[in-house]
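Posting this for the archive.
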Amino acid sequence: MRARGYMADGALRLAAKILILAWACACPGAWAQAAPDKEHRVKAVFLFNFAQFVQWPDSAFAGPEEPLVVGILGTDPFDAYMDEVVRGEKANKRPIIVKRCRKIEEAKACHVLFVSNSEMPRVETILAALKSRPVLTVGESEILYRHGGMVSFVTEGGRIRLKINLEAVQGSSLTVSSKLLRLADVTAPPRD
């Protein structure tokens, strides 16, 4: 019975975040001038949800109290909105925090890593440094996906879709929920 209550609480928090996102999209003047565009607000909520639907090995954390870190490498398209999305939230009883990274060494401590488009010129170096590490690499560029990134946001017909490179995910000892896989295009990226 406790598990159901926990899931219901999680579902309520997720529903509240979706309602807030819908309100934010409908009322663009309600946010500070520095707020990210609608597309990046949606992507921020996706990044939060990845923390809910991906399982990391115990070895990815120094201890049971260590937070789950959502990192942003390079130019931050989310501004403070990403911090708002995760404020007070947990994933598998771990608090979720946001970390902005300038160097790849900083990004190695992240669990979810959004690789900004500003970093695409060095994407091969970034992904090589994270290879076999339990870091879910996410981006909005086909370049990241083609070089072995795990999740790419793709905009088609005004809608944001996900592409998941399951081979890359499994090579990093991560487990993606079937619920998330159902929402995505799960294929191997073409080799260059």
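The chain has one domain: 34-186. The longest strand covers residues 94-101.
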